[in-house]
Amino acid sequence: MDKPFIYDYTLEELQTWAKENDEPAFRGGQIFDWLYVKRVDSFEQMSNLSKELRQKLEDQFQFVTLNEIAKYESKDGTVKFLFGLQDDHAIETVIMKHNYGNSVCVTTQVGCRVGCTFCASTLGGLKRDLTAGEIVAQVVQAQKILDERNERVSSIVIMGTGEPFENYEATMKFLRLMIHEKGLNIGQRHITVSTSGIVPNIYKFADENTQINLAISIHAPNDALRSKLMPVNRRFPFADVMDALRYYLAKTGRRITFEYALIGGVNDRPEHAEELAEVIKDMLCHVNLIPVNHVPERNYVRTPRNDIFEFQRILEGKGINATIRREQGHDIAAACGQLRAKHMESNAR
Fold first, then answer.
1. Residue tagged active-site, from 23, 105, 134, 336
2. Is the pTM of this model over 0.85?
3. Is 92 a residue of the active site?
4. What is the 3-state secondary structure (H, E, C) of 143-194?
5. pLDDT tier at 143 (50, 70, 90 boundaries)?
């Protein structure tokens, strides 16, 4: 059996491991510091640990290796990576530069089974879940790259390939590792997790008592249209998703972001905006309008610019806060799953 990833272990688990290996608990804290503050690449570099302890670590754990298959840099500063994992699967990670700092978009699964019809991530289905450590490694890798510029990861969005709430335990462990004050210490309010509406885990997340932001991919104002665009809606119908979100709001008091991908002639008409406003009018929320990226494998087209502004105007006229997502990495196929889809296609030839 392969050795577990060291990034899969929390500080407390490393302290327990140290004690089980006849070492004082504080050694676990030193290991954690080497991983997240000094960001070393090997156990050998952990110079304040004995040679014997470093050998134990070497024998029992492994680092997550993310082999850079491809790297694309956009004119707007967005950098997208296609990383190879140990088992020859590939994942995507994106660093986005904003005026408020650097954001990293991470992937939680290899592929996705949710099946949104406008998304390249679902092409080829779900291959496997990532471990918490494989998600962690994406942020650590991004931070190492930013270290060269004396910058830091200031926010994280869990909006890469996969459905985080179908890999719930690993996602939550990843989040706890990211916010730990002795690690990367990312502020909870600077992290957003996005779900397509896995109802049981929206309830679960509401009960976690965190300050982490929740975004929901809605993409339609009713059951019939949402089921066409998002097959997951047949498992978790629109009304059930809304009930879960109302529970989340009542429990946390935290604003929800609705993500709405505008698809030309499909879900972007004024009547769709009117209906959406009616559905969410009593909720503490914000709507993020996303002009859909053209995916060659799908037949959808982008909503004309004037129609996007009209959709926003209707929502705001009904008292709904709505913004249009600033496009990043448009020149480097930065939409989720596009690089991986190309990679899979070239490997199949």
1. 336
2. yes
3. yes
4. HHHHHCCCCCEEEEEECCCCCHHHCHHHHHHHHHHHHCCCCCCCCHHHEEEE
5. very high
Residues of each annotated binding site: 112, 116, 119, 162-163, 194, 217-219, 293
Q: Residue 59 corresponds to which amino acid? A: D
Question: Pick the catalytic residue: 23, 92, 166, 259?
Answer: 92
Phi-psi domain of 290 (left: phi exceeds 0; alpha: psi -120 through 50; beta: other)? beta
CATH topology of domain 67-348: TIM Barrel (3.20.20)
In the predicted model, is pLDDT for residue 329 greater than 60? no
Neighbours of 259 (CB within 10 A): 19
Class of domain 6-60: mainly alpha
Distance between CA atoms of residues 233 and 235, nearest Å = 5
105 is catalytic: no
Q: Residues 28, 31, 33, 36: what is their CA dihedral angle, to the nearest 10 degrees?
A: -120
The pLDDT value given to residue 12: 98
The rounded distance, in Å, linking the Cα atoms of 52 and 260 is: 54
Largest CA distance in the chain: 69
Task: List, as residue ranges, the binding site for [4Fe-4S] cluster.
Answer: 112, 116, 119
Tell me: pLDDT of 233 over 70: yes
CA angle at 322 for the pair 234 and 231, rounded to the nearest 5° = 10
Q: Where are the domains of the chain?
A: 6-60, 67-348
Q: Which pLDDT does position 338 carry in this prediction?
A: 54
Cα–Cα distance for residue pair 190/155, rounded to 1 Å = 5
pLDDT at 179 over 80: yes
